[in-house]
Amino acid sequence: MSCTIPESTDPAPTNRHGLFDGSLPGGIRSIEPDMRPDTLEARQRERIPTEIFPTADDACAELATEIAELIKARSEEGFSTVLGLATGSTPVRLYRELVRLHRESGLSFRDVVTFNLDECYGLPPKHRRATAVS
After folding, report:
1. What angle do CA 108, 110, 113 make, to 5 degrees?
2. Which residues contact 59 (CB under 8 A, 6 or more apart)?
3. Which residue in 1, 23, 65, 97 has the fewest CB atoms around it within 10 Å?
4. What pLDDT digit, counting tens, does each position of 74-109 carry?
5. What are the counts of helices (DSSP H) followed by strands (DSSP E) for the chain?
6. What is the pLDDT of residue 132?
7. Pair 131, 87: CB distance under 8 Å
8. Cα separation of 54 and 23, whole Å?
9. The predicted structure's pLDDT at residue 133
10. pLDDT < 50 positions in the chain
11. Burial class (CB in 10 A: 0-12, 13-18, 19+), 45
12. Where in the chain does DSSP place strands (E)?
């Protein structure tokens, strides 16, 4: 079984950043026969919203803004925000952007609770692989 994609003169669909969003004409997300939205297979699979950014810095800026908005909204409601933070070098750009928002926009982390996700249980605080703050 194959899927025919209708001809279209419409421009390629884009996300809010003006980038191609991966969909095909007529709203088709996949041309695999078993992944049509009306099939059981398609309904059983998890759908994770995915955005593609021109650069890693653009992605970090957008994500930091979303985190800041969450922190502010939760704080205004009288709740804390719980963040699971990855350790290592991968998220450093994101963390730098959050620091920038703190310094330049007054983003407060007063009501934020964090968990370092890569912490190894039982490591003494002075161990070279420990990320806990003593």
Report:
1. 115
2. 51, 53
3. 1
4. 999 999 999 999 887 889 999 999 999 999 999 999
5. 3, 2
6. 57
7. yes
8. 18
9. 57
10. 1-13, 17-21, 24-26, 28-32, 134
11. exposed
12. 81-85, 112-116
Q: Which residues pair with 114 in a beta bridge?
A: 83
E-state strands within 9-122: 81-85, 112-116
Place of tokens 């985190």: 67
What does pTM read for this prediction? Answer: 0.57
Note the residue count of the chain. 134
Per-residue tokens: 127:
């161990």
Which two structure tokens, joined as six digits, stand for 65?
A: 């803004």
- Write down the domain spans for the chain: 1-52, 56-116
Q: Which residue has the tokens 């933070």?
A: 85
